[in-house]
Amino acid sequence: MSNNIKKLTFMAVAVAINIVGSKIALFLNLPIFLDSIGTMLAGIALGPLAGGLTALVGGLVNGVLGDIYAIYFSISGVLMGVLAGFLFHNKKNSWVLLPLKTLVVTLPASALSACIETFLFGGITSAVVTTFIIQALSQTALKLFGSAFLTQAVTDYVDKLIAIILVVVSMKHLPYELTHFEDNKKAKEKVAD
């Protein structure tokens, strides 16, 4: 099987992980989203482009499957996937820097999500708990955008930290050939080392 087919198959599995995670979070009314585990997986294993594409396709498919908000928020998912790819792909990921790197992945995307929530949806999202928190905080000095950003920053950070930890731990325990896509000669040399 060619390397490109392996990468596309890997990305398809990552999209499926995003969709399943999203449906679990919606079904259980969780305050986190679980829709970016696959995005982080693709970004960390394959790089920024794969992370962004996985988020985009996952968001579009989730939108078609009934979560119309997912289509709009897929833009912030793309940003997270690209940033995760830049910060984690082919890098030594120390546990000490993991929370800081996750913050760098999360904050720009949270700001983008807050803009989408505020200007397109008036602070309403598909996550009931998040919508309630945003609406409650919008009655304070934070107003609607501030409450959307604060809520997104906290929930996104927790959500992405969980996703990144799951991916980093999983990648350490999965066979090297399953999570690294180099030519066969290089892969065999690294496994032998």
Question: Ranges with pLDDT <50 over ≥5 residues?
Answer: none
In CATH terms, what is the fold-level topology? Arp2/3 complex 21 kDa subunit ARPC3
Tally of structural domains: 1
**Judging from the principal axes of the Cα atoms, what is the shape?**
globular
Q: Please identify the structural class as seen in this structure.
A: mainly alpha
Radius of gyration, CA atoms, in whole angstroms: 17 Å
Please state the second-level CATH architecture: Orthogonal Bundle
- N- to C-terminal distance: 24 Å
- Let me know the number of strands: 0
Strand fraction equals: under 5%
Rounded mean pLDDT is: 91
Question: How does this model look, in words?
Answer:
The mean pLDDT is 91. This protein has 193 residues and is mainly α. It has helices at residues 3-28, 37-46, 48-64, 68-88, 98-121, 128-137, 143-173, 176-179, 184-192.
Task: Briefly say what this structure is.
With 193 residues, this protein is an all-alpha fold. The chain has helices spanning 3-28, 37-46, 48-64, 68-88, 98-121, 128-137, 143-173, 176-179, 184-192.
